[in-house]
Design a protein that fits this description.
Elements (H helix, E strand, L loop, with lengths): L7 E8 L3 H11 L4 E4 L3 E5 L6 E5 L6 E5 L3 H10 L3 E9 L2 E7 L5 E7 L38
Parallel strand pairs: 1-4, 5-8
Antiparallel strand pairs: 1-5, 2-3, 3-4, 6-7, 7-8
């Protein structure tokens, strides 16, 4: 039996038209603790997990972001199995990311977290907006940095 491709759920991205109203609903009313916030997105804690609910105002559908050990290797395995690459790989604040769809059209993001060996491999050096709605930044060593802006 082969190793599972996906290591864990990184986040569930939920599109909302009004970030402030969504924060009231999910944080104040439903009790999810605010972890980070930018002008276009906010991350909320899921108790018992290190996954996040990410509320965003981008014009994108709900999306599940999954962590993998290596984005290039995951893309090879995913496409060999019949999936499609929709975007990437590209750099984000927490590492390297690609957007894929399975044979049934379900859109997923595959991410590798900072510190993995292929963090910067195969990634264009252009500036992008990270899935969390924040501009991508890199450290002097070229490693991605996730330092969310507080609300």
């Amino acid at each position: 039996m082969t190793n599972a491709l996906f290591r864990k759920v990184d986040c569930l991205r939920i599109p909302v038209p009004d970030l402030e109203a969504a924060l009231v609903f999910y944080s104040e009313n439903l009790g999810h603790e605010l972890i980070w916030c930018s002008s276009k997105a906010a991350g909320l804690k899921l108790p018992g997990s290190n996954a996040e609910l990410v509320l965003h105002t981008e014009d994108r559908a709900m999306e599940t972001d999954l962590a993998v050990d290596s984005v290039p290797e995951a893309l090879e395995r995913f496409t060999s199995a019949g999936g499609k690459v929709l975007a990437g790989p590209f750099q984000i604040q927490i590492g390297l990311c690609a957007v894929v769809s399975d044979p049934w059209g379900n859109v997923l993001s595959e991410e590798v977290v900072m510190g993995s060996s292929d963090l910067m491999a195969s990634a264009p050096t252009s500036t992008r907006t990270a899935p969390h709605g924040q501009p991508t930044t890199t450290t002097a060593s070229g490693a991605a940095s996730r330092i969310p802006t507080p609300c």
